[in-house]
From TrEMBL:
Protein name: Feruloyl-CoA synthase
Domain of life: Bacteria
Organism: Rhizobium lemnae
Lineage: Bacteria, Pseudomonadati, Pseudomonadota, Alphaproteobacteria, Hyphomicrobiales
Cross-referenced PROSITE patterns: AMP_BINDING
PANTHER family (UniProt xref): LONG-CHAIN-FATTY-ACID--COA LIGASE, LONG-CHAIN-FATTY-ACID--COA LIGASE-RELATED
InterPro entries: AMP-binding_CS, AMP-dep_synth/lig_dom, ANL_N_sf
Domain AMP-dependent synthetase/ligase: 50-429
């Protein structure tokens, strides 16, 4: 296929960043990139308004309009909508003490409401819709409301959210909605909001915004406890985008075209990807699909029509895409027609998926396409570590971004990662004790992750994720288990039959695992499996035999007890969001699964017939 060699040549930097490493007297290691971040604006909407002035007709955002096409909003149209929302919020007295609560999936109105609030210096907080829609247990939603004390709520379709809104918000909190009316509170139609005329008060509020003004609150997904309101300032968001622009050179040379499904209530899409389009004058198309067996069909339909320059997905999403891209030449040509970079995160990618994706890219683009990852958190903007060069294997999270200082602190046999940069949060809203605990004596944010050198002693080679410190545990022998690294290796060893694993074995003699199945791949093991439900697949002889063979190969290749899983069981019931077993971005919460499924974890060490045992060194 034809492609633009000149544009591909500027996809990434031609020279590698110069990485400086220093070892301090206490044994900690400081790693940073030479240079300084270029100047950046005081707020994201300042950048938006500049594009609306210079490129008014450029598509800012697109959303699927039924099955026939796309509803789009230009930068000029977006400017008018943002100023209308900002004017209404200022008129209604919405403020940092009584911010805007957003209950909605990704949509153009959601984006306009959030940016309208930011434009006036008013924070918003977008929540995972599941907080309000996932049943009678509203404990997470109640916790969020108690922390925020919202002054207004936006719900795209009121009828979906009214039971939760009525249960947790007082009748004095007005509702903005596209459809539906609340009987217990004032309801303002979204179309009426857009008809609000810009006011001098709104302009004064915008002029008063500084880099230290709070732009939004993002709630952590609760993998280590209750959701926490992480402060996101305007300066954080803009500094992070300046870092990204320096890292990804193609953003400087052409406006990005993005099509993305990931939720905006999470930092990866809600901060990095959402703002990346705005900061660089690009176009963001909302993918209404999901990386699931059923949801991937919508994603494929959308990718037939929108060719991205930058693409993100979780590893299982790429796996679903590959099953189609490898056999549909027309779709593959469109997908790669202007691709500059592909990114994965959220879970470890298996070598098998990595190899298939690299081979496909090289078939359609001369020299291939960089397949990259990185490391960050809600508290870091999120962009902190990255790489843009091609790697031989998955797992490398790269080097500190320009402006980021990485501190590696020895902890047992691990190196704990801590970060400092202009895009680090000042703390947690209305929670001084938690804020104090999150930072060390030198002001570094404690990420909670362990890293190791990809090339021993050479920071320029990047770093490998070495597990969450809170997940790691000791065997009965006193040997530490690096859970994150082991999970990645086990997923790789099982060759696509699972998407993740939960490792059990604290204070035990050996390691065992609860496996998160990849049912579509499992059904491909033999004819006749396609129609079987999960409970029958999990115990089918063909499936058990395949698991035993691959688990045995893993056990035989392992170098010690802390790297060897000797038995496993497929989880027939999907992970439960309400119980904290999985986050809104699809990451598995190891500790929550072991807590909520303690009976299954215990069964791994008994004579339960559902357990598959590895055969290694004559043992079983």
């Amino acid at each position: 296929m034809a492609f633009d060699n000149v544009r591909m040549a500027v996809a990434t930097k031609e020279t590698s960043p110069r990485i400086i490493m220093e070892t301090q007297a206490d044994g900690s290691i400081i790693v940073r990139q030479e240079g300084a971040i270029p100047a950046y604006p005081r707020c994201i909407t300042e950048r938006f308004m500049a594009w609306a002035q210079t490129h008014p007709d450029q598509v800012w955002m697109g959303q699927r309009n039924g099955t026939d096409g796309w509803q789009t909003l230009s930068y000029a149209e977006g400017r008018r909508a943002i100023e209308a929302v900002a004017s209404l919020l200022v008129e209604r007295g919405i403020s940092v003490e009584r911010p805007l609560l957003i209950l909605s999936g990704n949509s153009i109105p959601h984006a306009v409401m959030a940016l309208g609030a930011q434009h006036a210096g008013i924070p918003s907080a977008a929540l995972a819709p599941a907080y309000a829609l996932s049943g009678e247990d509203r404990s997470k939603l109640i916790s969020v409301v108690e922390q925020l004390t919202p002054g207004m709520v936006f719900a795209d379709h009121a009828e979906r959210y009214l039971p939760a809104i009525s249960a947790v918000l007082g009748p004095d909190v007005p509702l903005v909605s596209l459809t539906g009316v609340a009987q217990d509170r004032e309801t303002i139609a979204y179309d009426d909001v857009l008809n609000t005329a810009p006011t001098a008060a709104m302009q004064a509020a915008h002029d008063a915004v500084t880099p230290d003004t709070i732009a939004k609150f993002l709630f952590t997904s609760g993998t280590t406890g209750s959701p926490k309101a992480v402060i996101q300032t305007h300066g954080m968001l803009c500094a992070n985008q300046a870092m990204i622009r320096e890292a990804y050179d193609f953003l400087i040379h052409e406006p990005p075209v993005i099509i993305d499904w990931a939720p905006w209530n999470h930092t990866a899409s809600g901060n990095k990807v959402f703002n990346m389009a705005i900061y660089n004058g690009g176009s963001y198309y909302i993918d209404d699909g999901r990386p699931t067996t059923d949801g991937i069909h919508a994603t494929i339909r959308n990718l037939r029509e929108i060719a991205p320059t930058w693409y993100f997905n979780v590893p299982v999403g790429y796996q679903y895409l590959l099953d189609v891209l490898e056999t549909d030449e027309t779709l593959a040509r469109t997908f790669f027609s202007r691709m500059r970079m592909m990114m994965y995160a959220g879970a470890g990618m298996s070598q098998a998926v990595w190899d298939r994706l690299q081979a496909l890219a090289e078939r359609h683009v001369e020299g291939g396409v960089p397949l990259v990852s990185g490391l960050g958190a809600t508290e870091t903007g999120p962009f902190a570590l990255y790489h843009t060069d091609k790697k031989e294997r998955p797992g490398n999270v790269g080097v500190p971004a320009l402006g980021v200082t990485l501190k590696l602190v020895p902890q047992e046999d691990k190196l704990e990662a801590r970060l400092k940069s202009p895009s680090i949060t000042p703390g947690y809203w209305r929670n001084a004790p938690l804020t104090s605990q999150a930072f060390d004596e030198d002001g570094f944010y404690k990420l909670g992750d362990a890293l190791r050198f990809a090339v021993p002693g050479d920071p320029a080679g990047g770093f490998l994720f070495d597990g969450r410190l809170a997940e790691n545990f000791k065997l009965a022998t006193g040997t530490w288990v690096a859970v994150g690294q082991l999970r990645s290796r086990l997923v790789d060893a099982l060759g696509g039959l699972i998407s993740d694993a939960v490792i059990a074995g604290a204070e035990r003699d050996d390691l065992r695992a609860l496996l998160v199945p990849n049912w579509p791949r499992i059904r491909e093991l033999a004819d006749g499996l396609q129609s079987l439900p999960p409970e029958e697949l999990a115990v089918h002889p063909v499936v058990r035999s395949a698991l035993e063979q691959r688990l045995s190969a893993h056990a035989q290749a392992a170098t010690g007890s802390a790297a060897r899983v000797v038995a496993a069981m497929l989880l027939k019931e999907p992970l439960n969001f309400d119980k904290g077993e999985v986050t809104d971005k699809g990451s598995v919460n190891q500790r929550a699964v072991l807590r909520e499924r303690a009976d299954l974890a215990e069964a791994l060490y008994g004579d339960d017939p559902r357990v598959v045992h590895a055969i290694w060194k004559g043992k079983r």
